[in-house]
Structure formats: structure tokens, C-alpha cells
Amino acid sequence: MKGRQWSGQHTIEVRRKILNAAKDLFTSQGYKKTTIRQIVDKSGILTGSIYYLYKNKDEIFQSLILSLTKQCIRSIDEVCEGESEDYKCMAAIAIEMHAIHASPIVCECFYAGYTSPAIFEKFVEVYAELEYELFKDTATPYSREETFHQALTVRSAMGGCVMAHYFNEPFDYEKYLDPVLSLVLYLHGVPRDEMSGIIAHLHERDELWKYIGKHLRDAPVEEPEE
């Protein structure tokens, strides 16, 4: 397999089949129950070809998260024209948290991600890159180190939200969402007296964020990432 030469377009198509098969399995039966063998059977891609592109199931999941995050960012850009970078960062978080709460299986997948150091690191890297790209051409750009530290802080808080879904006591994620959003604004240097207004403005479109999250869960992967 090491000597195989694939064209760029062929590689993209193979990745798309693998990621869509994995996504269907992850969202129907959960991360833990999904195996490489099932991904092989559902995608129609040979085992050797899958391992040529991905080391293991974790790496497939990482690539899937990256692809879906970029689709999410494109969706946010389409509906948030004229909104601030802070608002777009919060929208991405709201979409994810609504999706996690809406589906126990999606929650289980994210639980697997947040409890795996390798996958959690990818979560942080993806969100850090989102912040870096959003702010790089603004009056207050962040360095890659700054966005990484911010992303690590926010993602740790979101991981706590995922864990709380498994607490013995009932968990009201909507009460937890606002403190996470406030944390984003605090890290971005937004004055405290402005935070509630920005968060209220975001909540005015909660149904839209829920719709985008459901669409990302159900729709095929558009542009697979490595």
C-alpha cells in the first residue's frame, strides 16, 4: 500500500466515502460500538485503503470533526454577515452544545472525544484555528499561541458540559451555556457590562443554531479533511 499513487481527486472521494460511512455509524450507534470493520463494510472501501489514509478509528473521528467544523464555520459565515468575530465564535459553541444536548448518541461521541487526549487536542487545535482566522485581519489579532490557550480554556469548559450529561443529578445545559459564552467574551477582552447584551443577541437565533447542528449531523460530509 505504501507504493500506491492516488490522484488528488481520487483521494478526496475515498476520504469522503470513509468519513460519511463513519459519520452514519457514529451517529446511529455511537463511537464505542463502531469498528473499522463496520466502516469498511458500509463505505465499500478496502481495509488496506482505509489504513493507507488513517491510522485508526480515532484519526477518522479527528478528520470527521475537522470537516464538520469547517462546514459549520461556512454556515455561520453565511448567516452572520455583519456580526462581530466574538459573535461568530459564540455561534460555533452554541451549535455544538445544542447538538450534544439534543442527541445522546452525539453526546456519547463527544464524550469519547473529550476523554481521549489525542482527539481533545484536535478539538483545541480546530477551535484555535477558527479564532486565529477570524481575528487575524482585525484591529486585535491574536497570535497562534494566544488562540491555543484560549481554545484550551473554552474547550475544557465545554468538556465539563459533556461530562455533566452523565451526572446522577439532572443537568440543565442551557444554564451552563451562558457562562461558557461569557468565558469566550472575557478571554476576548469584552467589557463585562456588554456581555449580557451580546449573549442575548445570540440567543435570539437559538433555533437557527439548533437547525445548523442538526443539518451537520444528518447531511453528508462535503469536503473531507485529512
Q: What count of helical segments does DSSP give?
A: 11
Count of individual beta strands: 0
In total, the number of domains comes to 2
Shape: globular
H and E string:
HHHHHHHHHHH
Distance between the termini: 18 Å
Radius of gyration: 18 Å
Major sheet characteristics:
none
Helix content: over 70%
Q: Unreliable segments (pLDDT under 50, ≥5 consecutive)?
A: none
Beta-strand residue percentage = under 5%
Structural class designation: mainly alpha
The protein's oligomeric status is: single chain
Mean pLDDT: 91
Structural commentary:
By secondary structure, this protein is mainly α. Helix content is 75%, strand content 0%. It has 11 helices and no strands. The protein has helices at residues 8-29, 36-43, 47-53, 57-79, 85-102, 104-114, 117-135, 144-164, 173-187, 192-203, 206-218. α4 runs parallel beside α7 (117-135) and α9 packs across α10 (192-203). The longest helix is centred in the N-terminal third of the chain and has 23 residues, at 57-79. The protein is globular and about 55 Å long.
Task: Throw out a few tags for this protein.
226 residues, mainly alpha, single chain, 0% strand, 2 domains, Arc Repressor Mutant, subunit A
Give a quick rundown of the structure:
The protein has 226 residues and is mainly alpha-helical.
Layout of strands and helices, then pairs:
Layout: H1 8-29, H2 36-43, H3 47-53, H4 57-79, H5 85-102, H6 104-114, H7 117-135, H8 144-164, H9 173-187, H10 192-203, H11 206-218
